[in-house]
What does this fold into?
Amino acid sequence: MLVLVAPGQGAQAPGFLTPWLDLPGVTERLAEWSAVTELDLVHYGTKADAEEIRDTAVAQPLLVAAGLISAQQLFATPGDVARLAGAAAGHSVGEITVAAATGVLKPEAAMSLVRQRGLAMAKAAAVTETGMSAVLGGDPDAVVAHLKGLGLTPANMNGAGQIVAAGTAEQLTALAENRPEKARVIPLKVAGAFHTHHMAPAVETLEALVPDLAVEDPSTAYVSNKDGEVVATGGEVVQRLVNQVSNPVRWDQCMETFQRLGVTAMIELCPGGTLTGLAKRALPGVKTVALKTPDQLDAARELIATATSAAAAPGASPSDTTAE
It folds into this structure.
């Protein structure tokens, strides 16, 4: 079974959209979404420096646009996603990418929503100087207890030995000086304590937008960041998208669900690498392709074909189709 995933904030890098502009129709599509978001997505994806695209209000629309551009090269419609992928999930803002890819939201509506999400979260982050740091290694329970002892929130439980801590600048400095046992601490290039109580004002802003959103049920199994559960209705997907802004991301539970569903292959949309990296450690044997540039599209198409053929084989089961 193939799982389609989309990365979250921090995956962007200067110039990462440049090679995608060589594909037919991409520049025109980005121009349309630039009008929706009132951002020059081509500029931010090709010429802007790291600090410009670190801005939450810019990074989030840019990531969703990149993810959808790459998804549309592989899946022309949400129906294709349903036919070829057994499940889909996004990490944090990547959930909006996947909501559009699976037909819950039209791409234009997704771009409008993510623009408002980015603005609201940037505004909330400006109230207090906050940020996030990755904690790699150590016993997970001990790490969580250590973080809570410093007043930090385990905002991303990513599995594969990675937990992301979020809180004030002072709390993160204390973490750097007092690390959990057998763990490394790496500051992340994000501009706020996302998925914590610091984002509560952003939730209120997004809740006001929900009544005007046109939603459909997802075309394939949509795995939620809240608890790794499969969500069947578009209305619940959108409500979870809103509430997730101030709640921890449970990517560890998402990967457990992938495993339970029988995942054998994973494609990570542009800018790929983070989630497939976690999968290689937490889901051994699962074949992965991370879309960084159009150069990986052929490998992704080959993986789709292989996974689809295996799933369609008579008598196939998850154990029959596990990748080597």
About this structure: The first strand starts at residue 2 and ends at 6. Residues 130-187 form a domain with the Alpha-Beta Plaits fold (CATH 3.30.70.250). Residues 56-74 form the longest helix (19 residues). The radius of gyration is 19 Å.
